[in-house]
């Protein structure tokens, strides 16, 4: 029979739609619950930068002072060495929703910045993220760049899986993250080749310094890991200083970034990026935000190069497909599209979470056939999605349970280790990238077991379920109190 669905990884639409890779079926330290109190003696003066920080960071801080971002009153937190590397640490007590820092729009880097630059004319037709990536690379090569001191403190790479070696990627064998990572890397290569041929080489006077694929991956990684997207009219923007802030799973709101009108200097006004603390922070504690509540750990590994400590971030994506060889393909596609779906539908499932509401109805639709195919007739078209919310027939329900269980078993067999073996590995101190790989594959396997358990339990309940024919007979009054069919003898 045709495959009912494939399994695929979750994706992020932050910078571009991550390709969904279909598998055919026949970190930095985790954040403690109790905040770490850091030494604040060097941070006591709002204007002074910690002298123990690297020189580029101190130069960056002086640039912010010169630009009016740093004053005696603001910001309320400053760069500091933290367990994650660099972060923002409060130099005084900060209340919930209090402004931590403000950065004027003239210092932002976004598509508008590119449009106003020397290369704006040749970037007008590019994807926003590609144009900003090209701008970053060009500015990094210029000694006189306005953003020189900011660019100097940006990392050369992260632990994002797009920067992993082949040997490191081997640790992701069997995972959806591996196929997604390879698809993303190919996407970036393709975009660079197109950019090189259509924009860079024909305009050598604008790009005198050689630009390599590695440069492009660097810019991609910077945007993927540091750009903000929740500002009014801003879907992709780098904010110097604000991007020092780290993520914590203890923060449960994404309300922290605002675009406001205010003083941007001694005698100037501008739009400001305003960062507010989503929680109360004591002096010497690190200020955290929530990067993205809806991202899975696979997306965290791809975007940021670390895993969230919340186990419910572990996810797996079921990709359901209506096969084109299905004799009822057109009818099923029409029903799916009428209900906001399509020939292919993606369902993200997370550990210890219930199934997405449309998953079971769509599965029943895909599996519909045989004597149940009468429901595809046009007379049922307006009501069929309602019928699919409940079991259709024992055969249909048994089929979806069996196919899902077989798919989970097949996917689980593709991992080189068991959950128990991964747990054993996590007991020792691992390289950050190996720690990510072990966490991802263990998390995916737990979600697969979670899905398998749901459908095993469902299969055991099949004899007790009420199916369409029984419900229909009840509606017609053809069943008695004991649910036996009532026959009338003709008089």
From TrEMBL:
Q: Which residues form the SET domain?
A: 67-292
Any one Gene Ontology MF annotation carried by this entry is:
protein-lysine N-methyltransferase activity
* Catalytic activity of the protein: [fructose-bisphosphate aldolase]-L-lysine + 3 S-adenosyl-L-methionine = [fructose-bisphosphate aldolase]-N(6),N(6),N(6)-trimethyl-L-lysine + 3 S-adenosyl-L-homocysteine + 3 H(+)
Q: What class of enzyme is it?
A: transferase
Its main localization is plastid
Alphabetized PROSITE patterns for the sequence: SAM_MT127, SET
A GO biological-process term: methylation
Give the record's keywords alphabetically: Chloroplast, Methyltransferase, Plastid, S-adenosyl-L-methionine, Transferase, Transit peptide
User: Any idea of its EC number?
Assistant: 2.1.1.259
The cellular location(s) given in this protein's UniProt record come to: Plastid, Chloroplast
Positions of S-adenosyl-L-methionine binding: 246-247
GO CC aspect terms: chloroplast
To which protein family does this belong?
Belongs to the class V-like SAM-binding methyltransferase superfamily. Plant protein-lysine LSMT methyltransferase family.
Record-given protein name? [fructose-bisphosphate aldolase]-lysine N-methyltransferase
Q: Which organism is it from?
A: Malus domestica (Apple)
List the top taxonomic levels of the source. Eukaryota, Viridiplantae, Streptophyta, Embryophyta, Tracheophyta
């Amino acid at each position: 029979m045709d495959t009912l669905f494939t399994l695929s990884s979750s994706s992020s639409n932050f910078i571009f739609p991550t390709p969904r890779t279909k598998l055919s079926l026949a970190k930095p330290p985790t954040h403690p619950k109790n905040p770490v109190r850091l030494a604040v003696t060097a941070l006591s003066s709002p204007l002074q930068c910690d002298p123990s920080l690297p020189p580029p960071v101190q130069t960056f801080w002086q640039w912010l002072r010169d630009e009016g971002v740093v004053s005696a009153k603001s910001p309320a937190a400053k760069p500091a060495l933290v367990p994650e590397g660099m972060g923002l640490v409060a130099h005084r007590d900060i209340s919930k929703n209090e402004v931590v820092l403000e950065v004027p729009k003239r210092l932002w880097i976004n598509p508008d910045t590119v449009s106003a630059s020397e290369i704006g004319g040749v970037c007008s037709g590019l994807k926003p993220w590609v144009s900003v990536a090209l701008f970053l690379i060009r500015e990094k090569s210029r000694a006189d760049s306005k953003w020189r001191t900011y660019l100097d403190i940006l990392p050369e790479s992260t632990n994002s899986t797009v920067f992993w070696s082949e040997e490191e990627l081997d640790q992701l064998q069997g995972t959806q993250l591996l196929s997604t990572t390879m698809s993303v890397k190919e996407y970036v290569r393709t975009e660079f080749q197109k950019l090189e041929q259509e924009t860079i080489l024909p305009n050598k006077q604008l790009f005198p310094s050689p630009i390599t694929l590695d440069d492009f991956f660097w810019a991609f990684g910077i945007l993927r890991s540091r750009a903000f997207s929740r500002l009014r009219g801003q879907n992709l923007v780098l904010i110097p200083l604000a991007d020092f802030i780290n993520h914590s799973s203890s923060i449960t709101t994404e309300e922290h970034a605002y675009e406001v009108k205010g003083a941007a200097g001694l005698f100037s006004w501008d739009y400001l990026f305003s960062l507010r603390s989503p929680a109360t922070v004591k002096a010497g504690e690190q200020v955290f935000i929530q990067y993205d509540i809806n991202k899975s750990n696979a997306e965290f590994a791809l975007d940021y190069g670390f895993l969230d400590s919340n186990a419910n971030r572990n996810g797996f994506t079921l990709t359901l497909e209506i096969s084109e060889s299905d004799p009822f393909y057109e009818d099923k596609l029409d029903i799916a599209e009428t209900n906001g779906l399509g020939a292919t539908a993606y369902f993200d499932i997370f550990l210890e979470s219930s199934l997405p509401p449309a998953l079971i109805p769509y599965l029943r639709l895909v599996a519909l056939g045989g004597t149940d195919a009468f429901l595809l007739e046009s007379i049922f078209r307006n009501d069929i999605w309602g019928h699919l919310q409940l079991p259709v027939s024992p055969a249909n329900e048994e089929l979806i349970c069996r196919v899902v269980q077989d798919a989970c078993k097949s996917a689980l067999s593709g991992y080189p280790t068991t959950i128990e073996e991964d747990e054993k590995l996590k007991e020792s101190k691992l390289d950050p990238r190996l720690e990510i790989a072990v966490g991802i594959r263990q998390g995916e396997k737990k979600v697969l077991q979670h899905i398998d358990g749901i459908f095993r339990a469902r299969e055991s309940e099949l004899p007790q379920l009420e199916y369409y024919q029984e419900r229909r007979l009840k509606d017609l009054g053809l069943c008695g109190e004991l649910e036996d069919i009532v026959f009338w003898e003709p008089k």
